[in-house]
Amino acid sequence: MHWMILPLKRYFEFTGRSCRREYWMFALLNVIVVMALLMLMAVTGGAGSLLNQDGSGDGAPFGFLMGGVGLVIMLWALIVFIPSIAVTVRRFHDRDMSGWWYVAFVLGGLIPYIGFLVSIGFLVVMALPGYAGANRFGPDPRDPTSATIFE
Fold it and tell me: pTM of this prediction?
């Protein structure tokens, strides 16, 4: 549980490094919360606003988000927006990559057909192990005591 809420504690911290465990546990927390809220929405009938009174399905797009649970989902998305960017930038730092790669991956993901490959590349980069030892972004988050002072 510590690793899941650590990015929320480091809300606006874009410096330093984050290990794979911190990134993926935060992603797991987001999946669990959103799935629980979607199940709550399904149980309470929150998605019913997609249908018109006559039962046809041409209701307002994303109208289901305007209900009570939908607003909670949108609130959760706003709460984790900055921490998810921050933990991703710190994860890039752990790979000894600049945080600006995040912008490159987001913009690359918007290109039709190529965006799918960029998204796979992003997942691969996030899954690769970090740079062993200290790098230009700070000490190794897995072993911070291994940093030498006189290098």
Answer: 0.80
